[in-house]
Design goal:
Blueprint lengths: L31 H13 L7 H5 L1
Length: 57
């Protein structure tokens, strides 16, 4: 869980067997989405998709 403001709330019930670990801000090596997002951007850049199905493919 990163420290983005909208990712935190006090009104949530977390089960006892779950522990939320906050990662430091701006650490792409700790946030898997950063690497995946960069790969997706490179694969899709400069392409035009005519439908959601062509984007998914």
């Amino acid at each position: 869980m990163d420290n983005t403001g909208f990712h935190s709330t006090k009104n949530i019930d977390i089960p006892e067997n779950i522990y939320l670990l906050r990662i430091p801000s701006y650490n792409p090596e700790l946030n898997a989405w950063e690497e995946i997002g960069q790969k997706l951007k490179k694969e899709c850049e400069n392409q035009r998709f005519t439908s959601m199905n062509s984007l998914r493919e």
